[in-house]
């Protein structure tokens, strides 16, 4: 089974008591971003490389931003880079204590709390010689050695359900912008049965507008409405579409 869903989080910046649209704008994207970040940074895709996870109704634009941001943060804040910039083992504790004693007393009022709590500060900031504290490495659950690892741990497992009228669906397939020229696994996953849908046909036809506007190719569109939904479901259960009207097309895709 491949888990998929969206998160409801009417709170924080989505907590207006008078305006539904204000709350709804970006709501599922915010929840999806938080869940995706937690799974990725928690090493879920590292521990379960065969697991597919779908984030629905929030679109994919936020995932494109998250995916690309991960590279920027890893470059600046991976373990080796942080230790290069600031290794706790190089902290001169005794000199710091002297500075607290010298400058932390009156009339230097702002420094008094350092003198009063010097033992606590020394304890919290000091480690055994040669030992790197766990809190230094935010990537410890991922075992990342190179940038390509970020790509593989993100792109291979995460799928993003998109509404037909989302103008930014094409960002999943923007190989010029996405690191390593990847195409994220966006899939058409619309709530066409919602109460505010007057005509199913109007909704379905909107999926193709990005192709007409030159933002997606025919190949992108096929992946969006067929290939990605199929691989999302069949990776965990190859017989998912057995007995359905698309069984033949799915079999041909999986055997190709």
Structure write-up:
The chain has 13 helices and four strands. The protein is elongated. The protein is mostly helical and 256 residues long. 46% of the residues lie in helices and 5% in strands. It folds into two domains: 4-79 and 146-255, no CATH class; 84-136, no CATH class. It starts with a strand and ends with a helix.
The side-by-side strand order for the widest beta sheet comes to 1-2-3-4
Query: Counting H and I runs of at least 4 residues, what is the number of helices?
Result: 13
Strand fraction: 5-15%
| Low-confidence blocks of residues | none
Largest sheet: 4 strands, parallel
Task: Return the structural class.
Answer: mainly alpha
Helical amount: 40-55%
Rounded radius of gyration (Å): 25 Å
- Please tell me the total number of domains: 2
Order of helices and strands: EHHHEHHHHHHEEHHHH
Distance between the termini: 23 Å
Strand tally is: 4
- Average pLDDT, rounded to a whole number, is 88
Shape: elongated
